[in-house]
Design brief:
Elements (H helix, E strand, L loop, with lengths): L4 H20 L7 H14 L7 H8 L3 H4 L21 H5 L24 H11 L12 H4 L4 H4 L12 H11 L1 H7 L34 H6 L14 H5 L22 H4 L47
Bound molecules: heme C (HEC) (10 copies).
Keywords: Signal
InterPro entries: Cytochrom_c_NrfB-like_dom, Decahaem_cyt-c_DmsE, Multihaem_cyt_sf, Multiheme_Cytochr_ET, Paired_CXXCH_1
Protein name: Cytochrome c family protein
């Protein structure tokens, strides 16, 4: 039997690769559960390094990502509660333990590749960020759906991109594809060019309002910028007072002015009983019902009227 040289070379190559990968991430093979147990033991032993960051940088300083920490807020030694003023790297990554002994023990790792679940990762951050501003986090759908703080935030960087108006929309829509589609439609809030962002209306950490809105209700959210729609009006239009998103999709629409559908259909969802409201609109669009703005040709004060004779929202 002849052993082919190429086989030997291949064998050596896999051996090298294999041993390299063992050395690269020694806990690669651990299940999430075992990793969690290992970290718990490590925390209970609490063997933090004596030299803090210096001991980590002995091995990690060639990694540009690691070093970028010092360009950002978490790499500064003030204020007093900042990581660098205390346990330093280990404030987030957990105690060194025997990690430096040939990389024997794992550290807390963050992000998509991490084997730790979102809740465990987040608890590290919440240890310091437990101010009232984060109160709504626990009941937020982001938390309940296991979104991690670091799905949005970067730590080892000079400027966290999610805190930047010019990149926050991109980060949000990387998960919320439907909203991305909507905001690029014919009419939308000016989000395509980042003049407006998701957090003009939403709190990414959750809120007391519905849909994680900044204000308690949809309407209060809209009134912040569209104050004239608040009224009070002599003649109100009920659905307007109730919920702007009955007729508008705040993220965008193929119809003009963010409308979910066009008149007359928009109106006929509710006004179908009888009379002219239920009139079938002629195809040729030659009269006041079919042409121009359809029902709005006459009922132009759709958000309410202050005219003494405006009860039918015509003036
Ligand atoms: C003796 C060398 C050595 C020391 C000292 C050391 N590490 Fe590591 N560390 C490694 C090796 C090797 C790996 C696995 C390869 C890699 O991801 O760079 C690793 C991996 C990591 C990872 C996981 C990276 C990932 O993507 O999964 C983190 C986090 C980490 N180290 C943090 C620290 C911290 C914090 C300290 C100081 C408290 C520290 N290390 C000290 C050698 C060391
Ligand atoms: C405030 C928490 C925090 C502190 C302090 C911190 N890290 Fe990290 N570290 C993270 C997060 C979160 C990530 C994931 C990448 C990111 O968000 O920037 C990370 C990623 C890493 C990685 C993996 C980098 C890679 O190439 O993917 C290493 C290694 C690491 N940190 C080491 C360190 C060392 C060494 C220090 C101290 C000099 C340190 N970290 C301080 C939170 C922290
Ligand atoms: C040891 C305490 C500590 C830990 C752990 C910690 N932080 Fe911080 N963080 C701080 C301090 C201190 C500041 C600066 C606050 C200030 O200046 O008011 C800060 C600031 C921030 C900011 C604002 C950044 C900016 O550019 O203004 C964000 C976002 C943040 N942290 C996210 C996180 C995330 C995500 C984690 C977990 C991976 C985390 N932090 C872990 C202490 C911590
Ligand atoms: C869905 C994305 C997202 C998630 C998940 C997220 N954040 Fe934020 N965070 C943001 C955005 C966007 C801002 C900027 C808010 C602003 O400018 O009003 C911010 C701001 C912050 C700030 C600085 C301002 C403040 O409110 O004090 C801190 C600290 C912070 N986040 C911590 C966290 C922590 C801790 C977690 C996890 C428990 C987390 N964030 C989860 C998107 C997110
Ligand atoms: C890592 C993926 C991810 C990122 C990034 C992300 N989200 Fe989410 N978001 C989710 C998931 C998962 C849910 C819950 C399921 C759903 O409603 O789609 C959710 C739900 C929401 C909801 C509905 C809340 C409710 O209570 O009904 C809003 C609003 C939201 N996200 C806004 C944002 C904003 C704003 C950003 C950017 C600052 C953002 N998301 C970034 C994954 C993400
Ligand atoms: C002008 C205010 C406004 C802006 C800007 C905005 N939203 Fe919304 N969003 C709302 C309102 C209002 C609702 C509730 C809609 C409802 O009740 O039908 C909502 C609902 C949501 C929901 C819940 C599911 C759904 O589609 O109804 C998600 C997810 C969401 N928004 C994500 C985002 C993201 C991501 C961005 C940024 C790209 C964003 N929103 C920008 C007002 C806004
Ligand atoms: C942060 C400010 C802000 C908030 C909050 C806000 N809007 Fe707007 N809205 C704008 C801006 C800016 C425009 C664009 C004005 C322009 O193009 O002249 C706009 C335009 C509109 C338009 C007309 C779009 C068009 O194509 O002509 C509608 C309809 C609208 N908003 C509805 C809403 C509704 C409904 C809400 C609440 C869910 C809301 N807005 C919340 C700022 C806001
Ligand atoms: C019954 C359906 C309906 C409801 C509910 C409604 N709108 Fe409208 N809205 C319309 C229609 C139809 C137009 C288009 C008017 C036109 O083309 O003359 C419009 C246009 C707009 C415009 C752009 C033109 C203008 O008048 O400034 C804004 C802004 C707006 N609505 C905001 C709101 C806000 C804020 C709310 C909640 C307080 C709301 N709308 C509730 C039907 C509605
Ligand atoms: C979500 C349901 C709904 C939608 C959509 C809706 N309306 Fe209304 N509208 C009502 C309700 C409820 C009232 C008040 C009760 C009533 O008198 O019928 C009302 C009242 C009116 C009135 C005054 C009626 C009166 O008898 O005083 C007019 C005119 C009117 N709507 C026109 C429109 C037009 C035009 C549209 C489309 C742009 C529209 N509505 C869309 C629910 C709706
Ligand atoms: C040519 C002008 C005109 C157009 C177009 C028009 N309306 Fe009217 N509408 C009126 C007038 C005038 C009244 C008041 C009738 C009265 O006082 O008896 C009225 C009354 C109403 C009322 C109050 C109840 C009733 O029947 O008296 C509703 C609801 C209504 N219109 C809905 C609609 C809807 C929905 C459309 C579109 C399909 C529409 N209108 C199109 C002129 C118009």
């Amino acid at each position: 039997m002849r052993i082919r040289v190429s086989n030997i070379v291949y064998g050596i190559a896999t051996l090298v690769l294999f041993s390299f990968s063992i050395q690269a991430v020694p806990w690669e093979g651990l299940t999430s559960e075992r990793l969690r147990l290992e970290l718990e033991t490590k925390f209970s032993e609490g063997q933090y390094s004596k030299k803090g960051a210096d001991s980590c940088l002995m091995c990690h300083k060639k990694n540009a990502t690691v070093m970028a920490l010092f360009d950002g807020v978490h790499g500064q030694d003030s204020p007093a509660n900042s990581p660098m003023a205390g346990l330093q790297c280990e404030a987030c990554h957990g105690p060194l333990g025997k990690h430096n002994k040939g990389g024997k023990e794992s550290m807390i790792a963050f992000g998509k590749e991490s084997k730790l679940d979102a809740a465990s990762q987040n608890s590290t951050c919440l240890g310091c960020h437990n101010d009232p501003k984060q109160m709504a986090w626990h009941s937020s759908s982001h938390n309940l759906d296991e979104v991690a703080c670091v799905d949005c935030h970067k730590i080892h960087t000079a400027k966290d991109p999610v805190m930047d108006k010019l990149s926050v929309n991109d980060i949000c829509t990387s998960c919320h594809a439907e909203v991305k589609a909507a905001m690029n439609k014919r009419s939308s809030h000016p989000m395509q060019w980042d003049q407006m962002t998701c957090i003009d209306c939403h709190n990414p950490h959750g809120s007391m309002g519905e849909s994680a809105l900044n204000q308690l209700t949809v309407n209060d959210t809209c009134y912040r910028c569209h104050a004239e729609k608040r009224g009070p009006f002599l003649w109100e239009h009920e659905p307007v007072v109730e919920n702007c998103s009955t007729c508008h999709n705040p993220h965008g629409s193929i119809n003009s002015t963010l409308l979910k559908s066009r008149a007359p259909l928009l109106c006929q969802q509710c006004h179908m009983d009888d009379g002219h409201a239920s009139r079938v609109v002629p195809q040729d669009g030659q009269d006041a019902f079919g042409g121009g703005k359809s029902c709005l040709n006459c009922h132009s004060q759709i958000h309410g009227s202050n005219h003494p004779a405006g009860s039918k929202l015509q003036r």
